[in-house]
Amino acid sequence: MTTVLIADDQPMQRFGFRMLLESQDDMTVVGEASNGTEAIRLVDRHHPDVVLMDIRMPGLDGIEATRRIIATGARTRVLIVTTFDLDEYAYDGLRAGASGFLVKDAQPEELLAGIRAVAGGDAVVAPSLTRRLLDAYIHHLPPSPTVDGAPRPEDPRLAPLTEREREILTVIGQGWSNTEIADRLHLAESTVKTHVGRILAKTGTRDRVQAVILAYDTQLVTPA
């Protein structure tokens, strides 16, 4: 049974989400929050598998709530629910530790599949959409520091990676799916999955979305 907390300041939106989720045999709603502060409190109380998190809420917004929830080291994963074309904060939500995002007008089947994927440890943002999002909001990245005009030192998170793992992290950041990586690098897809798992473990990234952000942060990938 996947436990879900709904965080949204719109009562009708919460009601709609609850009705949909509780129609599923494998999901249950453990609570509702109307702002980020309530969400944090209810996560601490119920330890849900997934928080369905709105971004724009009164008081503490969904981004800061996500950041604080992830910072506790809890097993709870956050799925941002937003409107991509309008919401300039979606990128910040991913950087705060969310495992992905969906738009509010997604089909019910997409939302349910997204929650199941996040609960299972996967990311729910399609690789091409991840790349589009990061390229659109890449200006949120801090400037690359230099020392006496020299390039900055390599990020220590990359040090444990083999050359092959570094190559795969780079193409993950470029938006390649596992199937595309297997086809283009002439690897079995199971081998690619093994490499991806090792990359996540070695770099301390929670999921594929965070791996993409790492690739941008460390400049393995730069915006087109």
UniProtKB/TrEMBL annotation:
Q: List UniProt keywords, sorted A-Z.
A: DNA-binding, Phosphoprotein, Transcription, Transcription regulation
Ranges of residues in domain Response regulatory: 3-119
4-aspartylphosphate PTM sites in chain numbering: D54
Q: Which domain of life is it from?
A: Bacteria
The residues covered by the HTH luxR-type domain are 154-219
Q: Which InterPro entries match?
A: CheY-like_superfamily, NreC/VraR/RcsB-like_REC, Sig_transdc_resp-reg_C-effctor, Sig_transdc_resp-reg_receiver, Tscrpt_reg_LuxR_C, WalR-like
Q: Which PANTHER family does the annotation name?
A: TRANSCRIPTIONAL REGULATORY PROTEIN NARL-RELATED (PTHR43214:SF24), TWO-COMPONENT RESPONSE REGULATOR (PTHR43214)
Protein name (record): Response regulator
Instruction: Tell me which species this is from.
Output: Streptomyces wedmorensis
From the broadest rank down, the organism's phylogenetic lineage runs:
Bacteria, Bacillati, Actinomycetota, Actinomycetes, Kitasatosporales
